[in-house]
Write a structure and sequence with these properties.
Blueprint (H helix, E strand, L loop, with lengths): L5 H25 L3 H4 L4 E6 L5 E4 L5 H17 L10 E4 L11 E10 L2 E11 L24 E5 L2 E2 L1 H10 L3 H28 L6 H20 L4 E9 L6 E10 L2 E5 L15 H16 L13 E4 L18 H4 L2 H9 L16 E8 L6 E8 L26 H7 L2 E8 L15 E7 L5 E6 L20 E4 L2 E2 L3 E6 L4 E5 L14 H9 L5 H8 L13
Helix pairs in contact: 1-5, 3-7, 7-9
């Protein structure tokens, strides 16, 4: 391989970034589901012929980006590279080979130049319904829906009618899921055309040297940043809500020169409820957390993680054995970054954030339409408060680490027989500190259907709130209500006509002592309605005069 001039490499890198973002936008614009179109619950990337990811979209879910390379590597064990043809698409949603639950469908598309395989386009998209009867009480993964093994859904440009038929017969709204799948087929063609044009314009026959240089530069950058951290072992232990009882996540981080090892030994054993996080998912969020804290500006690719080792004992909630139930794997997996930051806060306090109002909160609404009695399944995401940063407050309605976007209320009301009466920030829910966490939000739904609507929720942080760090205060706990009465945070509930469901997401944790908070910031919190005068006087004491003429709202 001949060396590529650094300036030329930089230009090609920028072009690849722009290209993959354009490909993703073509998928988003042509998608059928709100979960892709509004929430951006998807990812697109390019990988080399060995399954190494070298470019990704900006709009993406970190877990999807983190698991895609592993999924492709598993695919290549079943379907070797030489067995791919132009126009093939391989599909799978196997929880243990993919993102950790059946609702995320991953597909791989080969890209050829002059009959030679040069790369793969990979994508993952969430589908709200994957058949079955997913439940917070599921005892094993067989209850959680349709598992699609590794197979070709398209071969030489022709759709596999048998696989399409399986999907049509097992899904409640197959037109939505198949619409998203076919939208990705179209995006793959866009990716192929643009990539081949780029290679022709840059006078390149393949991507080999480009990929080598990109991965090497990311590896060198990550090793350098790790080496800047003092050698040693750093630990954190946290309790999480769990299901019937609290569970423990224990994280040990070993820094040895330019290498880092994360070990989850001591974490609770897997349970027979769907909150177990398969290792692929745990690995993805561990790598994401490390990348954000240690080397956030370098390109994110396979090279960044060569100095990183992740270990989780098999049979734990962060590496369960089949057929453990895993539908709500984010209820454990989203705790991976805060456990890592809890450990790293002791050595790189300025590079991390306090805990956010995650694991991500969402609601499934399932029922039958009154107009034609056809089934519907819709999902609504609602983010809690983001944890405070070492230099700024945490924003509201932005819950790290999911990266899922909020959804338009009007768009949701068009899809389901529900009205949203309130969507607002909640006063006094921010974790206090020099920098405060993002506030909780309150969302209220009313059923307008004369037919029952089955509402399924899987929420965390109702027992243990997001932790503050380095002297900052904890955020607030979440609350789930129906008709102003508390309901379990992990349950299925039948809503009748006129029933009111209210959800208050957790508020983010604070950073540093509240005694360090700027007086003007305290006043701003009061004036915006995020902080009551009473609490301000209690917490910030001399920063707020008891004779203040500021009225608590």
């Amino acid at each position: 391989m001949s060396k590529i001039d650094p300036i030329k490499l930089g230009i090609i890198w920028k072009r690849l970034n722009g290209m993959i973002d354009e490909v993703a936008e073509s998928f988003i614009r042509s998608s059928f589901s709100a979960v892709v179109r509004e929430n951006y619950d998807m990812a697109f990337s390019l990988l080399d012929t060995r399954g190494r990811q070298f470019i990704q979209t900006k709009k993406s879910i970190p877990s999807f980006i983190g698991t895609l390379p592993h999924t492709l590597q598993e695919i290549l064990k079943i379907i070797p590279a030489e067995q791919f043809n132009e126009g093939d698409v391989v599909i799978s949603n196997d929880s243990w080979l993919g993102t950790g639950h059946l609702n995320d469908i991953t597909m791989i598309y080969p890209i050829f130049k002059k009959n030679k395989l040069i790369a793969f386009a990979g994508s993952t998209a969430h589908t709200v319904d994957i058949g079955g009867a997913p439940s917070p009480n599921a005892q094993d993964s067989y209850e959680e829906g349709l598992c699609i093994p590794i197979c070709k859904i398209v071969e030489k440009g022709i759709e596999n009618k048998t696989i399409i038929s399986f999907l049509e017969q097992n899904l409640r709204e197959p037109e939505e899921t198949l619409g998203d799948i076919r939208a990705q087929f179209s995006a793959y063609k866009v990716a192929t055309t643009k990539l081949l044009n780029l290679l022709d314009e840059e006078n390149l026959n393949n991507l080999d040297q480009i990929i080598h240089d990109i991965l090497m530069r990311s590896e060198v950058s990550m090793r350098k940043k790790i080496a800047d951290i003092p050698d040693g072992k750093y630990e954190d232990e946290m309790l999480v809500d769990g299901f019937d009882h609290p569970l423990k996540i224990k994280c040990s981080i070993l820094i040895n020169k330019d290498q880092i090892t994360v070990d989850f030994t001591g974490t609770s054993n897997q349970i027979n409820r769907p909150i177990n996080s398969v290792f692929n998912y745990t690995y993805a969020y561990a790598c994401y957390a490390l990348k954000c804290a240690i080397d956030p500006t370098a390109p994110n690719n396979d090279g960044s993680f060569r100095p990183v080792k992740i270990f989780a004992p098999e049979g734990t909630i962060v590496n369960p054995k089949r057929p453990a139930p895993v539908w709500g794997r984010h209820l454990t997996g989203h705790y991976i970054p805060p456990s890592i930051y809890g450990a790293l806060s002791k050595v790189i306090p300025n590079n991390i954030i306090a805990e956010s109002g995650s694991p991500l909160w969402n609601i499934y609404f399932k029922g039958r339409k009154e107009i034609d009695d056809s089934p519907f399944v819709k999902m609504f995401f609602m983010n809690g408060g983001h944890g405070a940063r070492s230099k700024s407050d945490g924003p509201g309605c932005l819950s790290f680490p999911s990266n899922v976007s909020n959804q338009s209320i009007e768009q949701f009301e068009n899809q389901a027989p529900l009205i949203v009466h309130e969507k607002s920030f909640v006063k006094d829910t921010q974790g206090i500190g020099k920098y405060v966490g993002g506030p909780a939000q309150k969302i209220t739904f009313e059923s307008t259907s004369k037919k029952p609507i089955m509402m399924t929720i899987r929420h965390e942080r109702v027992v243990y709130p997001p932790r503050g760090i380095l002297g900052g205060g904890n955020g607030s706990k979440g609350i789930d209500l129906v008709n102003n009465k508390k309901i379990p945070a992990k349950t299925t509930y039948s809503l009748k006509f006129g029933d009111i469901a209210t959800f208050q997401t957790p508020g983010g944790g604070g950073v540093f002592s509240p005694s360090q908070r700027d007086k003007d910031k305290v006043l701003e919190d009061i004036l915006t309605g995020l902080l009551s005068l009473k609490k301000a006087q209690l917490i910030y004491k001399n920063k707020v005069s008891r004779k203040s003429n500021v009225k608590s709202t």
